[in-house]
Amino acid sequence: MGNKPFLLNLSLAELKALLADWGQPAYRATQIEHWLYQQYATDASAMSSLPKLLRQQLAERCLINPLELVVALDSSDGYTQKALFALPDDRRIETVLMRYDTRQTLCISTQAGCAMACPFCATGQMGFMRNLTAGEIVAQVLYYARQLSQEEKRVTNIVFMGMGEPLANYAETWRAIRRLNDADGFNLGARHLTVSTVGLAPAIRRMSQEPEQVGLAVSLHAPNDALRNTIVPVNRRYPLAMLMASIKDYLAATHRRVTFEYALMDGLNDSDAHADQFADLVQGLLCHINLIPLNPTPNSPWSGSPDERVFAFRDRLLAAGISTTVRLRRGIDIAAGCGQLHNAQRTEPLLRVN
Question: What's the mean pLDDT when you consider all of the chain?
Answer without folding.
Answer: 92
